[in-house]
């Protein structure tokens, strides 16, 4: 197990040069987002050239070489996909290509999104069928590639354990599991004890993680709250929140998880740049101590 960080979070701490940022915090792992134009942020920008194009083999080779020569470990690629997109063929082609690239970069997993357009108007079974159909297509087209797909518990649908369990049962693939976001079930309104139950249930299916935290008033922690209740007010630096990540790390260790603990502190907007860096450093040191 090791500490990594999302590229967006590293950028939010003032580092456009990700290699410099990783060295500053004393970590090696980074999750890189892939947009629908097949662009990935450069680890070290070159003037106005800020992205690699991963549909060009020479640029994938450049990214791989730059990562390896600087001791950077690409822990996962992040996709904000939509399995109910109007142009499903184009959407699935993008996901397939990203899986191929992840394999070339040595990333064991990609983060896929649970959010779909129109999901609020669809019954649960139909949503599961649409999502499962897209996932199966992608898995079939990449059957020889040892990269796993981690669904993030993201949004209303993704934080519904019934949806996640139903989807796993429909797809029945060892390559489909979770990007466990440790804060999102709490964001979705589940009481704290229920959050731990869900995380423990999903730990054996976890391929990747996103780590964040929230600090609610004590009287609210074990109550059922509305989705996203006052998140901007109560989101906090990772070591300061209600979720005890020592318990979560132990759950993951017990389940055999040995990959990255990926920092996604969404409280950074509440602080100046100096304090942002201090909060991330605190989180890095906190998780290094827990892992050890």
Kindly describe this structure:
The chain has 292 residues and is of the alpha/beta class. The protein has one domain (2-291): Divalent-metal-dependent TIM barrel enzymes (TIM Barrel). It contains twelve helices and twelve strands. The protein has helices spanning 7-12, 18-25, 57-69, 88-105, 124-141, 155-158, 161-171, 184-187, 192-202, 231-234, 245-254, 273-291, and strands at residues 2-6, 29-33, 39-46, 49-53, 73-78, 109-113, 148-152, 176-181, 206-210, 213-214, 235-236, 260-263. The strands form three sheets. It has an eight-stranded parallel sheet. Strands 3-4 form a two-stranded antiparallel sheet.
Write the layout of secondary structure elements.
Elements lengths: L1 E5 H6 L5 H8 L3 E5 L5 E8 L2 E5 L3 H13 L3 E6 L9 H18 L3 E5 L10 H18 L6 E5 L2 H4 L2 H11 L4 E6 L2 H4 L4 H11 L3 E5 L2 E2 L16 H4 E2 L8 H10 L5 E4 L9 H19 L1
Parallel strand pairs: 1-2, 1-12, 2-5, 5-6, 6-7, 7-8, 8-9
Antiparallel strand pairs: 3-4, 10-11
Helix pairs in contact: 4-5, 5-7
Q: Could you please say which CATH topology applies here?
A: TIM Barrel
Query: Between the first and last Cα atoms, what is the distance in angstroms?
Result: 9 Å
- Shape estimate: globular
Mean pLDDT: 97
CATH class: Alpha Beta
């Amino acid at each position: 197990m090791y500490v990594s960080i999302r590229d967006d979070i590293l950028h939010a701490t003032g580092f456009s040069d990700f290699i410099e940022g990783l060295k500053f915090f004393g970590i090696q792992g980074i999750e890189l987002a892939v947009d629908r134009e097949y662009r990935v942020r450069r680890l070290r920008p070159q003037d106005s050239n800020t992205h690699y194009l991963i549909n060009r083999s020479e640029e994938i080779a450049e990214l791989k070489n730059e990562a390896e020569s600087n001791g950077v470990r690409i822990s996962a690629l992040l996709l904000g996909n939509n399995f109910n997109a109007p142009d499903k063929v184009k959407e699935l082609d993008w996901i397939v290509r990203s899986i191929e690239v992840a394999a070339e970069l040595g990333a064991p997993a990609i983060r896929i999104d649970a959010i779909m357009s129109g999901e609020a108007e669809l019954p649960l079974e139909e949503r599961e069928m649409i999502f499962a159909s897209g996932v199966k297509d992608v898995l079939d087209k990449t059957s020889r590639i040892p990269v796993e797909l981690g669904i993030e518990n993201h949004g209303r649908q993704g934080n519904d354990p019934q949806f996640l369990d139903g989807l796993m049962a429909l797809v029945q693939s060892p390559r489909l599991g979770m990007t466990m976001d440790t804060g999102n079930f709490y964001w979705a309104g589940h009481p704290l004890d229920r959050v731990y139950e869900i995380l423990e249930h999903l730990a054996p299916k976890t391929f990747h993680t996103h780590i964040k935290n929230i600090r609610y008033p004590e009287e609210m922690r074990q109550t059922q709250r509305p989705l996203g209740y006052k998140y901007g007010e109560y989101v906090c630096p990772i070591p300061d929140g209600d979720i005890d990540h020592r318990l979560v790390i132990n759950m993951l260790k017990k389940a055999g998880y040995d990959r990255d603990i990926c920092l996604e502190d969404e409280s950074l907007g509440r602080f100046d740049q100096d304090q942002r860096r201090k909060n991330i450093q605190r989180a890095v040191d906190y998780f290094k101590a827990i892992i050890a």
